[in-house]
Each structure stands twice: as C-alpha cells, then as structure tokens.
Amino acid sequence: MILVTGGAGFIGSNYILGWLRRGDEPVVNLDILTYAGNPANLSALVADPRYAFHRGDICDQEMVESLLRQHSIRAVIHFAAESHVDRSIHGPDAFVQTNVVGTFRLLEAARRHWLTLPVQDRDRFRFLHVSTDEVYGSLAADDPPFRETGRYEPNSPYSASKAASDHLVRSYHHTYGLPVVTTNCSNNYGPFQFPEKLIPLCIHNALSGKPLPIYGDGRQVRDWLYVEDHCTAIERVLAAGRPGETYNIGGWNEQANIDVVRVLCGILDEERPRVGGGSYADQITFVKDRPGHDRRYAIDARKIEEQLGWRPADTFATGIRKTVRWYLEHGDWVASVVSGGYREWIDRQYGR
Ligand code: NAD
Ligand code: DAU
C-alpha cells in the first residue's frame, strides 16, 4: 500500500485517480484539507475498497508513524504543501510550517517506520518527494533550461520553503540511507486546479465577465505540463528512479503568460462564445507585478527521458483544450470551491 500526502489537492487527486485507473495497489490519502484540499475531487472513489482517506496534519509525527505502521506502507508520495507563490508573499508562516517542518516530521516518521521493516522491504521502500523547478531561481532569456545539477537560488518564500524541504530529503538519504527520490517539476495545468492559479483563474474570470489579471508586462515564461503527464512521470520515478537521485520533469513547452491567456481566450471564444459578442481577450487587464517575480523557468527533462524512458504524452495544444473543456463541464466544482474564503483572498490580492 502507498501513502499519498496532499491527495485532496490539485496534483495529488489527479495522481490517486490515475494510480487506481492504471493498477490495483491500495492508497491511503493523508490530507488536512486546507482551502486547497477538496475531498470531492475523489468522490468517484468513496465506495472503492482500494482507497482510504485520513484527515490529518503531516506535522503530527506520531499520527503519521502509526498510519505508516497500521497500513504497512511501502512508499510515501509526498505532495502536501502550501503551493501558491502569491500567498507565500502575503503570509510565509504557513509555508515554513507545512513545507519545511511538515516535510521534516514526515521524514522522521518514515525513517522510524522504515527501520522496523525486514531488510528486504527496507530496500524496496521509497520516500518520493514532489518538488518544483522554482528552487532553481529565475533564468535569463538565453540561459539553458534547468538541469538537476543546477544551483539552488529560490526567490520567494514558497520556493525557499520547497528548497529547504529538498535539502532535508537529500540529507535523510545521505545520513540515514532512507531510500528517497525527489522530482522537480515545472508548472502544471489541468482538472481540479484551484482557481487562484493563472490558468483556472483566467477561465473562471473570463466566464464571469471579470478582468483577466496579467502581472507586469505578461512576458514571464513558464514551462507548462499537463497534470496527467506529471503523474505518469512520478509513477515512473517511483518504479525505476534510483534512491538519492533527483529528476527534473517538464513539458518542453515554454510560453509567455500573455500568450497562454490569449490561447485560453481563443479556445473559450470557440467553445463558449461570449454573450453579446467580442472576444474574452478584451477582458485582459495588466496589473501590478508580483514582488520578486521570476522571469523565466524552463526544464531540461533529458535525464528522466534517457534514464527512465518518460516523455510527456500531451502537447500544450491538446492539454489546454482538454483543460478548458473540463472547466466548462464542471462549473459546479468551480462554484463549490469559490467559497467565502476564496473571495476574501481575491479581494486582498487584486483589490476590490
Ligand atoms: P495544492 O495546493 O493544490 O494542494 C496541496 C494539498 O496539500 C491540499 O489538499 C492541502 O489540503 C494539503 N495540505 C496542505 N498542508 C497540509 C498539511 N499540513 N498536512 C496535510 N495536508 C496538507 O498543491 P498542488 O498544486 O497540487 O501541488 C502539490 C505538490 O506539487 C506541492 O508540493 C507543490 O509544491 C508541487 N508542485 C506543484 C506544481 C504546480 O504547478 N501546481 C508544480 C511542481 C510542483
Ligand atoms: O513552476 C512550478 C510552480 O508553478 C509550482 O511550484 C507552484 O506550486 C505553482 O503554483 C506554479 O507557480 P507559479 O507562480 O508559476 O504559478 P501561477 O499560476 O501562480 O502563475 C503563473 C504565472 O502567471 C506567473 O508568472 C505569475 C503569472 N500570474 C499569475 C496570477 C495568479 C499573472 O500574471 N496573473 C495572475 O493573476
């Protein structure tokens, strides 16, 4: 059985759904259900005997340890985190608590559990830490993409907290021999992404007749990957990644933010023409830039391709159309997560 942390969030819920579609090994999902966690993402599994949900905090080491023992866990896939850069600028405390302290507590619980395993099971055990390309900092326009050997230069409280967690994970391998693997992935998009992040926020605002807020000049570049591809990459690393190694995951798909939003608007114009005519692109509004905004991220994903044989299956063109259609078909999901708390955040971030 595997333990997934943060499985009620965006990537974690896609991961669990994909895992149980492709195989039968049971999953325990440990999630505290912050604003970003939504058990409804996994409602298809409520009666599935292969799935168990446990509401709890990764910082609660004792509880995690007993969960690991109780379910004879052979692998931890660690997604749980505070994940939104803008929120980390307004309130870094939760980021240090969950991303740094939480990862540390989880590592301690995993190490103690691992030590109780018979020797042959100890070799098979994995702690897979899901991290981000943001730990490498920002690239200039003509820099080569990030490689696994690149220097860590995190620029936001979010990326600094993820960098700290990566270092802790690395140290647990080097010092204690815990079989860890770390993945550093670029920007994901797809179903179940909370509408605070660029793509779902713009789809939601477009359909609600609101401005599509573009920070600064909109020429910042991100390397977009469809979430299913991230999930299959993690599965591949879990199955074949070498303990102690890190693997970059990306879509070979660099896009400027303004171009992403224009593509979104074009698809929406076709799929759900604006009442009263005109294009959703007319709603694009340039707003104040994010403080310390990283200019460009790009992933060199050759290591995972050459060593583990993984490549993304979706292109940006196929992935973004599937994503827009998913949001159009799941207006009820968006309505349910766009709660009072969400509205307070939007007011704070973009002004009333
Ligand atoms: P998300 O914010 O959608 O979900 C995070 C989940 O973690 C939520 O379900 C939340 O309830 C849970 N959680 C938070 N604090 C917790 C705690 N203390 N104990 C237990 N559960 C807790 O995040 P996401 O976008 O799905 O990202 C998942 C992971 O992938 C994160 O570690 C993130 O750093 C990493 N990542 C994300 C992206 C991306 O583009 N979204 C890209 C690369 C890496
Ligand atoms: O690179 C991986 C990272 O991608 C993950 O580690 C993070 O968890 C995830 O949130 C994401 O971080 P970004 O900051 O890149 O994602 P976000 O969707 O917030 O922003 C994408 C780009 O769009 C970024 O350059 C900021 C810009 N942006 C964002 C918002 C919310 C805007 O221009 N306007 C907006 O309103």
Quick overview of this protein structure:
The chain has 13 helices and 13 strands. With 352 residues, the chain is of the alpha/beta class. The strands form 4 sheets. A 7-stranded parallel β-sheet has the order 3-2-1-4-5-6-11, sandwiched between helices.
Q: Look at the structure and give the mean pLDDT.
A: 96
CATH class: Alpha Beta
Order of helices and strands: EHEEHEHHHEHEEHEEEHEEHEHHHH
User: How many strands?
Assistant: 13
Residues in helix, %: 40-55%
What is the end-to-end distance?
Answer: 47 Å
**Helix segment tally:** 13
Which second-level CATH architecture applies?
3-Layer(aba) Sandwich
Category from helices, strands and their pairing: alpha/beta
Query: In the CATH hierarchy, what is the superfamily?
Result: NAD(P)-binding Rossmann-like Domain
Rg, alpha carbons: 20 Å
The strand line-up of the biggest sheet is: 3-2-1-4-5-6-11
Shape: globular
Sheet with the most strands, sense and barrel status: 7 strands, parallel
Number of domains: 1
* Unreliably modeled segments: none
Q: Return the CATH topology.
A: Rossmann fold
